[in-house]
Specification:
heterodimer, A: about 110 residues, mainly beta, 7-stranded mixed β-sheet, 4-stranded antiparallel β-sheet, B: about 120 residues, 6-stranded mixed β-sheet, globular
């Protein structure tokens, strides 16, 4: 039981490049979330999903897109990376009947 | 919408001393409250939570937090800290506005335990 995993762990991009971050969970959780963590700001919700095939915007969705084609995977895409997207990205999941979110180890993204 | 204020960005403390990390949230309606801990270069781990029932909740490693509805607070305490408690601690509150259940996080408190 690996819990929540994230790929890659670290990435450097140039401005304008695109990339996809992968989140996978093996707990059969319905809900999945993408957050970004910036110094002094805690975690802010980017997008979330309440089930396979559904996604919705969170607090800071601009510049990001997501997809949830399979229940266990939640992908976060950056179509044209900007330096303001330099951050640590965390994925989380939870069971629909419970309140506790389980977090992945994070992806450090540096946009030059 | 909810908001969370962690009153101290950094808390330095000596080993075996007591510590309190303060957390206030904005609304007095029914809430779920959480403390998460983030050790260096790791993801967030749930430390403890309040959903209902007893207002005092405890973790397995000696931390406790008390839900105070009148003061809208959920302060985290430990009577004697260890070097291994050095980490960043995040308070979070559930928020049901906007039609979905989400967590609102505070900015975090960095606890530094010194020998």
């Amino acid at each position: 039981n690996a819990g929540v995993t994230q790929t890659p762990k670290f990435r450097v991009l140039k401005t304008g490049q695109s990339m996809t971050l992968l989140c996978a969970q093996d707990m059969n959780h319905e809900y999945m979330y993408w957050y970004r963590q910036d110094p002094g700001m805690g975690l802010r919700l980017i997008h979330y999903s309440v089930g396979e095939g559904t996604t919705a915007k969170g607090e800071v969705p601009d510049g990001y897109n997501v997809s949830r084609l399979k229940k266990q995977n939640f992908l976060l895409g950056l179509e044209s990376a900007a330096p303001s997207q330099t951050s640590v990205y965390f994925c989380a999941s939870r069971r629909g009947t419970q309140e506790t979110q389980y977090f992945g180890p994070g992806t450090r993204l540096l946009v030059l | 919408a909810q908001s969370v204020t962690q009153l101290d960005s950094q808390v330095p403390v000596f080993e075996e001393a007591p510590v309190e990390l303060r957390c206030n949230y904005s609304s007095s309606v029914s809430v779920y409250l959480f403390w998460y801990v983030q050790y260096p270069n790791q993801g967030l781990q749930l430390l403890l939570k309040y959903l209902s029932g007893s207002t005092l909740v405890e973790s397995i490693n000696g931390f406790e937090a008390e839900f105070n509805k009148s003061q809208t607070s959920f302060h985290l305490r430990k009577p004697s800290v260890h070097i291994s408690d050095t980490a960043e601690y995040f308070c979070a509150v559930s928020d049901f506005s906007g039609g979905y259940n989400k967590l609102i996080f505070g900015a975090g408190t960095r606890l530094a335990v010194h020998p």
